[in-house]
Design goal:
Endonuclease, Chain A, 6 strands, elongated
Length: about 280
């Protein structure tokens, strides 16, 4: 079977974690290939996500690498055994891979934490709000492409409708609540929906008020997705130039600390809802 030309973020992540285990064992790809009855090229393809790997093969890697974190190894085996396509795969030929990677990340997460300073988190946006923030893109998108992106954004929120939906804790700066994307009525409807969806057991919305005098280092949207074990957590950053996923240990520590700052800065749940309602009534 030829190597994959474009592995998904999920496939690349499994390979990256296997590479971490190999490097922790002090082995290079040639040495690992010799231990496992293969060669350097095979190990490189697996670690780049270009070749699939079975759970049995993952356990073989773990034995030769003397990996002692059994929970991590079990989680990697589960990743290797994932089969079937998600709803996002319907868009694979029409949207850039980054869009699909976010949807799969949310789908597989054990919990989600979002930090936004300019816009409402994507999973909590109304249809009109989504259309409003896509309307003035530079350069403008063809109507068909724009429509697909809006449709895809709204479908992502289905993850919150599942019986086993991952808990979502959304930290939203007051500035984002006061932005009038789409005009007064669109903003009012968005704020009303934000209050409504926060009534779900799995959704928590907390506002960082203008009154907070500290610095929140989040000039771009941050999504923290929990994995089955802490080592498989992922940070997703979005910008005008596209998104990227971070999962190096140092990056995960940094963003865990950043969410601790947000937790201290944000109002309580009831106070947050009162502020959202107050802004809604002011419009």
């Amino acid at each position: 079977m030829p190597p994959r030309s474009n592995p998904t973020a999920r496939q690349a992540r499994l390979g990256a974690e296997l590479r971490k285990l190999r490097e922790a064992a002090g082995l290079n790809t040639t040495e690992a290939g010799a231990l496992l009855g293969g060669n350097q090229a095979q190990i490189s393809h697996i670690e780049a996500g270009r070749w699939g790997v079975s759970a049995a093969r993952v356990r073989q890697f773990a034995v030769h690498y003397e990996a002692s974190n059994t929970q991590l190894v079990d989680a990697l085996c589960a990743m290797a055994e994932e089969r079937g396509k998600g709803w996002w795969d319907e868009y694979r030929s029409v949207l850039a891979p980054g869009f699909l990677d976010v949807a799969e990340l949310e789908h597989r997460a054990t919990f989600l934490r979002s930090l936004q300073t300019v816009t409402i988190p994507g999973l909590l946006q109304t249809g009109e709000y989504v259309r409003a923030i896509h309307r003035d893109r530079v350069p403008p998108l063809p109507p068909a492409v724009n429509g697909l992106r809006v449709e895809f954004r709204l479908k992502r929120s289905q993850v919150l409708d599942r019986e086993d939906s991952p808990p979502l804790e959304a930290f939203i700066h007051e500035a984002a609540l006061r932005m009038r994307f789409g005009g007064r009525k669109v903003t009012q409807a968005q704020l009303a929906y934000l209050r409504e969806v926060s009534g779900r057991p799995s959704v928590t919305v907390r506002v960082i008020p203008f009154a907070y005098e500290g610095f929140i280092e989040a000039t771009q949207p941050v999504l923290y997705a929990g994995g089955p074990v802490e080592e498989l957590d992922t940070v997703r950053l979005d910008s005008a130039l596209g998104g990227r996923s971070l999962y190096a240990d140092a990056a995960l520590r940094k963003y865990r600390a950043q969410f601790e700052v947000a937790d201290r800065a944000a109002l309580g749940i009831e106070e947050s809802l009162q502020l959202i309602h107050g802004i809604e009534r002011e419009l």
